[in-house]
Amino acid sequence: MAGNQTTGLDISDDGGLLAISDFLDNRIRIYTIPPYEKLASGNGGFWSRHRARLTK
């Protein structure tokens, strides 16, 4: 997920974004973080199509 050599990790002030920088792959990845209510309601915030791929 984080790449070859993760050099930075940060969460936005509002808790809605996660940024990861990767030195060797020359990339910055930005992810959205679902609100707590959505995570707590089940499915871990996964889109149903992605959730079906998880092993149980």
TrEMBL record:
<protein>
    <submittedName>
        <fullName>Uncharacterized protein</fullName>
    </submittedName>
</protein>
